[in-house]
Fold:
Amino acid sequence: GAVVSQHPSRVICKSGTSVKIECRSLDFQATTMFWYRQFPKQSLMLMATSNEGSKATYEQGVEKDKFLINHASLTLSTLTVTSAHPEDSSFYICSARSTERGTRNSPLHFGNGTRLTVT
Amino acid sequence: QKEVEQNSGPLSVPEGAIASLNCTYSDRGSQSFFWYRQYSGKSPELIMSIYSNGDKEDGRFTAQLNKASQYVSLLIRDSQPSDSATYLCAEGGSNYKLTFGKGTLLTVNP
Structure:
């Protein structure tokens, strides 16, 4: 089945530093990937839609200058949390659907998530 | 604004019973529907996808879709304690983005 690989799975960083999270679709092409954030005992929250070769689309209330998204290839999207603060500590999850021809209704597959702790 | 509604629960069933999870959606034009399971501290994993009216069975899981009523359900037969998790309903739009419900917490008691 389709696999989405996310790295790292866990990161601890100091306040003010930046953290980069990678998301790869391993066996399908995805011109669009999605980044979610989830706080403990809360729902998934869509942060942004990552578009290959163009700017990401951010959801309302998400700071685009703080959460930098780069989608440089059909299989790789990165999320960089810049100048991280303790309130950015959360579970970040990427996801992707195949955007290959004939796969419009394909399921969304999730990476294993990255647990970020900012001290 | 598309919406997907689920009862937040918690839904508690005894081991061996049938767990019934329900979901309604607002976009009458939606074509694809998915059920995900999320264990605490983990990312969601796909359980079922359904695209046509009627039932779709996969092992102990049965998804039901009624487009006229804009209703999707998931039945889990012979529930096991390992089924205890949050179940997310999602509908797929034309732009590859899924709209998720807030999830229903299921607890299966031994």
